[in-house]
Amino acid sequence: MRGASATASRGVLVGIDLGTTALKAAAFEAGDGTALAVASQRLPVHVESDGTREQTSEAICQALKDVGATLKARLGSRWREVRGVGLGAQGGSGMIVDRDTGTAHTPMMLWNDSRAFRFLPEIAARKDAAYWQYLAQRHGPGAGLARLHWLKQTRPELFTERRLYAGAGEYVYFLLTGAWRQDACNALQIGCYHVPENRLDADPLAVVGVPLSFVAPLRSGHETHALSANGGTLLDLAPGIPVAGPYMDHEAGYLSAARISARPLQCSLGTAWVGNFLISDLRAGASPLQLVIGSPLGKGHLVIQPLLAGNVAWDWGLQNLVDPDHAAALAKLDGIFAERLLPPDGLVAVPWLTQANPWGPGVLGGGTFSGVSAHTSKSDLLRALAAGLAWEFARVFRDVRDRGLVDSVVLGGGASKGRFFRDMFAALFAPLPVFTLADEELAGARGALFAFNPDTAGARPIPVPVATAPVADAVRQGFDRYCAWFDKLYADVKAGEPFRVAVP
User: In terms of domains, do 224 and 82 share one?
Assistant: First the structure.
C-alpha cells in the first residue's frame, strides 16, 4: 500500500469509469489534462420481471480488457507512458467472491435489483428508527443488508471466511491491484458505513448475522496501490504503476468540478438526476433520500442528493412524444424548443415516472400531467416533461441555493447537452453562475485521477449564458406554479421532501 502519489505532470494518466450499463476509459495528458483517447464497452444487464438486475464478473473483466486494448491501439507508443490509473464506479451493487482469487460465486446484483427489498421493513424493525437515522443520516437501513439477508437464506454455504461480498468498484480494483478496497458510498448503500465517524461499522451487519470481515476495507483518502501482475496483464501495462480508487461515480464526478468554484453544486443529469455538494457540518441540513459521505477534499461531508426523476422519464418522453428512434428524436429537439421553450400556462408535469404511485398501493408510476386539453399537442407534453424535470431539480435544491450552501452550478450527464435544459437551469439558479463541461462524458474518468493531479482531474467549464429577462421570468413563474401544484398532490410523500437547510 502507498499513500497518494505525488503530483504527476508528465506522461499519461488513465481514468476508468465503471457505470451500470457501460465501462468507459480515457487517457489524458498528465500535465494539462488534454484527452488523448477514449474507449467504451457496453455491459449487458440480465433483467427479469421479478426485479432481477444482474451482471456477470466475466462481462466486467472482458470489458476491462477490451477498453484497455482499444486505448492502447489508439495511443500507440504512448501507452508505455502511462504513469497512473484511477477508478470510479457505480455503488451499491454486490456479489460474493473468493477473497484470495476474486472468483465470483454469484452474479452481481446491481444497485437497482429489487428482489430483496421486501426484507427491508423486517430488518429496519430490529433497531429503532433513530439508530438508522444517526448511523446513515437517512431513513432506514441500506439495501445491501437486505441482499445479504436474502443471500444467507438462499446460499448459506457461501458465508465463510474465504468469501467476500464485493461491489463493482471493489472487484475491478482487486483485478487491477490484488487489494480489496471500497468507497464510503458503496459501504453506505451496503448498510455498514457510520456517517458521523466516517468509518465502517460492524453493528448493522450483525443485524443480519454477517461479520464486518465479509466486506472490503474502506478506502483511505486518495491512497493508491501498485498495479499487480494480473492487472498488468489485463491492461498490458508494467506492474507497479499506482492505481487510485475506487471512487463512487458521483464522488469522482464532484472531483471533476471541485476546482470550478469554492462550493459548486455538481449536477449529474443521467439515468437518475443527482446533485452533489459539500457541507461543513452534518447539522447543516438534510433530506430523506440523501447519501452522505466524508468529503473527498478533506474536511466536511459530501452530500449526494438523488431526485425521484431522471433520464428514464426523459427517454420515455422522447420515445413516446417525439420519435421511437432515439437518434431521430434527439435530432428534432432543437426545432421543438426553438418554437417554444415552455409548455402552455396550466400544463404541469411531475416526472416521477419510476416511482410508486402515491395514491394506488402496489401500483408503479407516480408521475402526473395536469392541465391537458383537447388542444394539447405531443410537443406541449414534451415541453411540460422537460420543464417538470428542471423544476423538480430546482425544488429539491431551492434551499441549497437560497441559503448560500453553493456558489455555482455545474451541469454534467447526458441531459446537460440539451440547450433547453441549460437555459432553464440558468434561469432557475440565477444569480449563481451555471456551467457545462467541455467533455462532460469524461467527467467520471477525469475525477478518478484526483490523487495524481487535481488539475488533470478538473474538467474545463463552459459558462451558460444568462437567460433573457422575459425567458427567466417565465421560467420562474412556471416554477412557482409547479411547486404549488406539487404541494397539493405530493405534500404527504416523505421521500419527495427537498433538502432543507437547518435554521442556524
Answer: yes
Q: Contact 409/264 with Cβ under 8 angstroms?
A: yes
Half-sphere exposure at residue 65, Cβ-oriented, CA atoms within 13 angstroms: 9
* Residue 303 bridge partners (DSSP): 277, 292
Q: Express each pLDDT in 345-393 by its tens digit.
A: 999 999 999 888 889 887 889 999 999 999 999 999 999 999 999 999 9
> How many domains does one find in the chain?
2
Omega prior to 343 cis, within 30 of 0: no
Domain coverage including residue 136: 12-249
pLDDT classification of 8: cutoffs 50, 70, 90: low
- Confidence at residue 364, expressed as pLDDT on a 0 to 100 scale: 82
The tally of CA atoms less than 13 A away on the side-chain side of residue 420 is 24
Q: Write out the three cell numbers for 381.
A: 407534453
pTM above 0.90, yes or no: yes
What residue type is 129 in one-letter code? A
Residue 292: pLDDT above 80? yes
What integer best gives the mean pLDDT of the chain?
95
**What is the average per-residue pLDDT within 414-420?**
93
How far apart, in whole angstroms, are the C-alpha atoms of residue 241 and residue 64?
A: 17
48 part of a folded domain: yes
CATH code of residue 362: 3.30.420.40
In a domain, 339, yes or no: yes
Per-residue H/E/C for 399-453: HHHHCCCCCEEEEECHHHHCHHHHHHHHHHHCCCCEEEECCHHHHHHHHCCCCCC
Percent of the chain exceeding pLDDT 70 equals 98
What contacts 316, CB < 8 A, 6 or more positions away?
Answer: 353
Task: For residues 462 and 200, give the distance between their C-alpha atoms in angstroms, rounded to a whole number.
Answer: 38
Among candidate residues 219, 111, 106, the one with its CA nearest the CA of residue 164? 106
pLDDT tens digits, one per residue of 196-239: 999 999 999 999 999 999 999 999 999 999 999 999 999 999 99
Residues 203 and 331 in one domain: no
Residue 440 lies in a domain: no
Candidates 47, 7, 118, 84; CA nearest to 362 is 118
- Whether 266 and 221 share a structural domain: no
Whether the link from the prior residue into 498 is cis, omega within 30° of 0, is no
Q: Residue 57 belongs to what H/E stretch? A: helix 57-75
Is residue 245 located within the same domain as residue 275? no
